[in-house]
Specification:
1 helix, mainly beta
Length: 141
Protein backbone atom coordinates (compact mmCIF):
# COMPACT_ATOMS: atom_id res chain seq x y z
CA UNK A 1 0.00 0.00 0.00
CA UNK A 2 3.09 2.23 0.10
CA UNK A 3 3.82 2.99 3.74
CA UNK A 4 6.95 4.98 2.99
CA UNK A 5 8.86 6.68 0.21
CA UNK A 6 12.36 7.93 -0.44
CA UNK A 7 12.53 11.31 -2.13
CA UNK A 8 15.11 14.00 -2.79
CA UNK A 9 15.30 17.73 -2.73
CA UNK A 10 18.20 19.75 -4.12
CA UNK A 11 20.45 18.88 -1.19
CA UNK A 12 19.69 15.40 0.14
CA UNK A 13 17.52 12.31 0.20
CA UNK A 14 14.74 11.71 2.77
CA UNK A 15 12.88 8.62 3.88
CA UNK A 16 9.29 9.61 4.61
CA UNK A 17 6.80 7.35 6.41
CA UNK A 18 3.04 7.88 6.25
CA UNK A 19 2.40 7.60 10.02
CA UNK A 20 4.44 10.77 10.58
CA UNK A 21 1.95 13.68 10.65
CA UNK A 22 4.50 15.84 8.80
CA UNK A 23 4.91 13.29 5.98
CA UNK A 24 5.05 14.93 2.55
CA UNK A 25 5.87 13.85 -1.00
CA UNK A 26 7.29 16.00 -3.83
CA UNK A 27 4.50 16.29 -6.39
CA UNK A 28 4.05 17.40 -9.99
CA UNK A 29 0.60 17.87 -11.51
CA UNK A 30 -0.27 15.90 -14.63
CA UNK A 31 0.23 19.02 -16.78
CA UNK A 32 3.81 19.47 -15.53
CA UNK A 33 3.34 22.10 -12.78
CA UNK A 34 5.64 21.34 -9.83
CA UNK A 35 3.88 21.75 -6.47
CA UNK A 36 6.91 20.95 -4.32
CA UNK A 37 6.43 18.89 -1.15
CA UNK A 38 2.74 18.23 -0.45
CA UNK A 39 1.44 16.73 2.80
CA UNK A 40 0.68 13.05 2.38
CA UNK A 41 -2.94 12.23 3.18
CA UNK A 42 -4.80 12.89 6.39
CA UNK A 43 -4.51 11.05 9.66
CA UNK A 44 -7.47 10.28 11.90
CA UNK A 45 -6.64 13.06 14.37
CA UNK A 46 -6.08 15.73 11.69
CA UNK A 47 -8.81 18.17 10.74
CA UNK A 48 -9.60 18.70 7.08
CA UNK A 49 -11.99 17.88 4.27
CA UNK A 50 -10.16 15.06 2.52
CA UNK A 51 -10.61 11.41 3.44
CA UNK A 52 -8.57 9.80 6.19
CA UNK A 53 -5.61 7.78 4.98
CA UNK A 54 -3.00 8.36 2.32
CA UNK A 55 -4.21 6.15 -0.52
CA UNK A 56 -6.91 6.04 -3.18
CA UNK A 57 -8.01 2.75 -4.69
CA UNK A 58 -7.93 2.95 -8.50
CA UNK A 59 -11.31 1.18 -8.72
CA UNK A 60 -12.89 3.87 -6.50
CA UNK A 61 -11.28 6.68 -8.52
CA UNK A 62 -12.52 5.16 -11.80
CA UNK A 63 -16.12 4.82 -10.58
CA UNK A 64 -16.18 8.46 -9.40
CA UNK A 65 -15.83 7.90 -5.66
CA UNK A 66 -13.27 10.71 -5.38
CA UNK A 67 -15.09 13.20 -7.64
CA UNK A 68 -16.65 15.05 -4.68
CA UNK A 69 -13.13 16.14 -3.67
CA UNK A 70 -12.36 17.54 -7.15
CA UNK A 71 -8.97 15.82 -7.30
CA UNK A 72 -6.18 16.75 -9.67
CA UNK A 73 -4.15 13.93 -11.24
CA UNK A 74 -0.52 14.14 -10.20
CA UNK A 75 2.77 12.28 -9.84
CA UNK A 76 4.74 11.53 -6.69
CA UNK A 77 8.37 12.19 -7.60
CA UNK A 78 10.11 9.57 -5.50
CA UNK A 79 13.18 7.38 -5.91
CA UNK A 80 11.77 4.40 -3.98
CA UNK A 81 8.70 3.21 -2.10
CA UNK A 82 8.24 0.81 0.78
CA UNK A 83 5.71 -1.92 1.49
CA UNK A 84 5.40 -3.89 4.72
CA UNK A 85 4.49 -7.57 4.71
CA UNK A 86 2.27 -9.40 7.23
CA UNK A 87 5.25 -9.77 9.57
CA UNK A 88 5.76 -5.97 9.44
CA UNK A 89 9.05 -6.40 7.55
CA UNK A 90 9.83 -3.48 5.22
CA UNK A 91 10.55 -4.10 1.53
CA UNK A 92 11.96 -1.18 -0.50
CA UNK A 93 11.42 -0.94 -4.27
CA UNK A 94 13.57 1.37 -6.38
CA UNK A 95 11.95 3.50 -9.07
CA UNK A 96 13.50 3.72 -12.51
CA UNK A 97 14.39 7.18 -13.79
CA UNK A 98 11.45 8.79 -15.56
CA UNK A 99 8.83 6.96 -13.47
CA UNK A 100 6.63 8.30 -10.66
CA UNK A 101 3.81 7.26 -8.35
CA UNK A 102 0.29 7.88 -9.63
CA UNK A 103 -1.37 10.33 -7.20
CA UNK A 104 -4.36 12.55 -6.57
CA UNK A 105 -4.05 16.05 -5.10
CA UNK A 106 -6.92 17.56 -3.12
CA UNK A 107 -7.36 21.08 -1.78
CA UNK A 108 -5.27 24.20 -2.02
CA UNK A 109 -2.58 26.01 -0.06
CA UNK A 110 -1.96 24.70 3.46
CA UNK A 111 -4.91 22.31 3.13
CA UNK A 112 -3.48 20.60 0.03
CA UNK A 113 -3.00 16.83 0.40
CA UNK A 114 -1.63 14.08 -1.86
CA UNK A 115 -2.97 10.51 -1.98
CA UNK A 116 -1.14 7.60 -3.67
CA UNK A 117 -3.32 5.66 -6.13
CA UNK A 118 -3.22 1.91 -5.52
CA UNK A 119 -4.38 -1.25 -7.24
CA UNK A 120 -3.72 -4.99 -7.02
CA UNK A 121 -0.05 -5.93 -6.59
CA UNK A 122 2.02 -7.61 -9.27
CA UNK A 123 1.62 -11.39 -8.89
CA UNK A 124 5.19 -11.84 -7.64
CA UNK A 125 4.57 -9.44 -4.75
CA UNK A 126 1.04 -10.43 -3.76
CA UNK A 127 2.45 -12.13 -0.64
CA UNK A 128 3.63 -8.73 0.64
CA UNK A 129 0.41 -6.70 0.46
CA UNK A 130 -2.98 -6.74 -1.29
CA UNK A 131 -2.69 -3.12 -2.46
CA UNK A 132 0.18 -1.66 -4.46
CA UNK A 133 1.06 1.83 -5.68
CA UNK A 134 0.60 2.42 -9.38
CA UNK A 135 3.82 3.49 -11.09
CA UNK A 136 3.57 5.65 -14.23
CA UNK A 137 6.06 6.39 -16.99
CA UNK A 138 6.27 10.19 -17.16
CA UNK A 139 7.19 10.05 -20.87
CA UNK A 140 3.93 8.27 -21.75
CA UNK A 141 1.62 10.36 -19.61
Amino acid sequence: MCGGVEARDAERSYKVYFPNPKAAIPVMLEGGEALGWVRWGRRREEPGKGPQGGWARLETVERGGWDKYQPLRAYGLVQAYMEKDADRKSHWFQMDAGFALDCLVLGEGEERRVYVVTSAPPAEYSWIHDRWPIVRNLQQS
